[in-house]
Write a structure and sequence with these properties.
Two copies of one chain form a homodimer. With 380 residues, chain A is α/β, with parallel strands linked by helices. Chain A has two domains: 254 residues, Alpha/Beta hydrolase fold, catalytic domain (Rossmann fold, 3-Layer(aba) Sandwich), CATH 3.40.50; 99 residues, Rna Polymerase Sigma Factor, Chain: A. Helix content of chain A is 33%, strand content 16%. In chain A, the strands form four sheets. Chain A has an eight-stranded mixed β-sheet, sandwiched between helices. In chain A, strands 2-3 form a two-stranded antiparallel sheet. The longest helix of chain A is centred in the middle third of the chain and has 15 residues. Chain A is globular. Chain A starts with 13 loop residues before the first strand and ends in an 8-residue tail after the last helix. The model of chain A has no long low-confidence stretch (mean pLDDT 96). At the A-B interface, helix 3, helix 4, helix 5, helix 6 and helix 7 of A face helix 3, helix 4, helix 5, helix 6 and helix 7 of B.
Chain lengths: 380, 380
């Protein structure tokens, strides 16, 4: 059926409704919440072979496999999830959910508020990373998952993996944090803030109330995405991909159209993004990312991780300047200080933050050895 | 009168009209052009003690001194220009012009097109760094400057200083390039492109025709400036200035107002910028910056600098990631390859690109020694 014989095959999005209200970190009680999720492999009788994989900022629950026989694009972590792959679905029951506040099935600002019959818009409560993992925990309970063989995520997904260990230490046997951080640098906050400002200052944003309007805040959202993409690459990656090459021309145009390939790339990324993502979701999710700071909340990372008995794998990429290696090393230091079983791999890559979605071969090998070997990952 | 006894005192903006049309690099012939400029010190009889100092992206001709007795803010390079200062006005005749296409006196898109009686808007021709120095050369001719004792600039001003040496090698005895580059990286182009996109996608931009409208593209311009400011600082500077500290609060607001100090800083920078700068000027000037590439134009930097007999001082800052030191080193290497007299100083600073406007003490010493000592600058 598919060229990849180790594909999980055709998968479909499932939904679970959390009927009771959840108390968010802000104090707001919110519900019901529909959680969109996919699963691959089978849960064992003890309910202890589950792996929760968590998507990054604008991802979705479709982590592996295909939607149909004609579907050419597999899930976002398909390279790592499947029979005999790093997250081996012959052994593990792999679960991925769309994030709270997202726009790919899980309740978010674009969802209909049952009390008004209209989309929540910015009446949706501002939530935190802690709230997003509380929602995932509810799903795991519903699925009869007793403990997580592992919880894994990259970038913002890694933040949630960190928080899952902190919130539910008794439930997690191992955790994989990839290209992530325990708290954004002020520079990363700045980029998010300018992205949000770009959306909010688009008149079509209309205070978040645009779902039934002709114009959506596509320009603002597109611009936010362009800013994001600059931070996902790095200078070296941009030299490699584009240099100063012109786009479909040999000479400057002497106007304000696109001249350089890098401009064309960013504009394209912005344009395709607005077709798949909701501007309000972008506001909420980036705010949750900015707020994430277990160091501040628990006093220190060692306090935060103290109750965990998990083993840990931390992966960073040397050219990642959005979630730089020193931030991963801070996590590793705290875990080592606590005497936890922790493996750390800094992978050399010219791809910047995007490396976590590109450098699959090396990650696959590391994760496979980490999950199968009680001695930890082979980072050589 | 002023606390600074080495101030040039009260200065006023002067204007010179280039009546004939200038042929721009695009092929367009354009004129008349009014050049706004200031001068400090006196030109000697030989007309060879002049120093042209060139402002950065959004600067103006007011480089030194005060506008009035009550004026509290001196010109942008006042620390370096004045009697006994680095650019010693007892010895030198210092000239600074507002850039072509700017909005502080020199003809730009907000100027009235004498043929229509309306502002040029985007009918203003796209120009290059070469065109900006051609305009400055016309002013120097008018002022009877025969040769430049030095030409100096930081950031985009440095690009123009580079181009001045290339365009008029016979005229330049020394040149000072600070925190600049012979060509932007694709990452720097990307930031400019997103900034322009932010302006152009603001409905109030109205295809550049907003001068008589109630609404100007303030939101787009403000957002562009916010992006710019992220690049002028660096991660270390942001940690030092803001960290993850909240602005006037102890807890998150759980809404989309400003939470962090870094957000507040950027919003403030954006807001004050729109009062002093024209959105169309921002488009034109950043485009000229993107286009600047003497390596491409002349085949190599050695070709470009070959005809010059000037001595050179190149200064970069180790934390500057917008115009990184390696770019200055490329310039230095080319000049050394040509056997030119070149001094290079990489200054340690935690201030990022902004360092060129902050680290005055060390720059003052270096420039003073470079200008006075035929052996070059003391970079120790």
């Amino acid at each position: 059926m598919f060229e990849d014989k180790n594909s999980v095959g055709i998968v479909s999005l499932k939904y679970y409704e959390i009927k009771e209200k959840i108390k968010f970190e802000s104090g707001v009680e919110f519900g019901p919440i529909t959680v969109a999720y996919e699963t691959y492999g089978k849960l064992n009788e003890n309910g202890d072979n589950a792996i929760l994989v968590i998507h990054a900022l604008t991802g979705d629950a479709h982590a592996a496999g295909y939607r149909s026989e004609n579907d050419k694009k597999p899930g976002w972590w398909d390279t790592l999830i499947g029979p005999d792959k790093a997250f081996d679905t012959n052994k593990y029951f792999v679960i991925c959910t769309n994030i709270l506040g997202g726009c790919s099935g899980t309740t978010g600002p674009s969802s209909i508020n049952p009390e008004t019959g209209k989309p929540y818009g910015i009446t949706f409560p501002v939530f935190t990373i802690e709230d997003t993992v509380a929602v995932q925990k509810k799903l795991l309970d519903y699925l009869c998952v007793k403990s997580l063989y592992s919880v894994a995520g990259g970038s913002m997904g890694g933040m949630q993996a960190i928080q899952f260990v902190i919130s539910y230490p008794e439930m997690v046997k191992s955790a994989i944090f990839i290209a992530t951080t325990s708290r954004l640098s002020p520079q990363a906050i700045a980029f998010n803030a300018v992205g949000r400002n770009s959306i909010i200052s688009d008149p079509s944003w209309n205070n978040g109330d645009y779902y039934d309007k002709d114009k959506k805040p596509d320009r603002g959202l597109s611009n936010a995405r362009m800013i994001g993409h600059i931070t996902y690459l790095c200078e070296e990656a941009m030299y490699n991909k584009f240099g100063r090459r012109l786009q479909d021309k040999n000479h400057y145009d002497f106007n304000f159209d696109v001249d350089f390939q890098v401009e064309s790339y960013l504009q394209h990324q912005g344009q395709i993004f607005v077709d798949r993502f909701d501007a309000n979701s972008y506001l909420y999710i980036t705010k949750a990312v900015d707020y994430f700071d277990p160091v501040d909340k628990y006093g220190s990372l060692t306090n935060a991780f103290n109750a965990s008995n998990a083993k840990f794998l931390v992966i960073s990429f040397d050219s990642d300047w959005l979630f730089p290696s020193y931030q991963s090393k801070e996590i590793v230091s705290s875990l080592m200080h606590l005497g936890k079983d922790v493996s750390y791999c800094e992978i050399k890559s010219p791809c910047g933050h995007d490396a976590f979605l590109l450098e699959y071969d090396v990650q696959s090998k590391i994760i496979k050895s980490f999950l199968s070997d009680s001695k930890g990952a082979d980072c050589e």
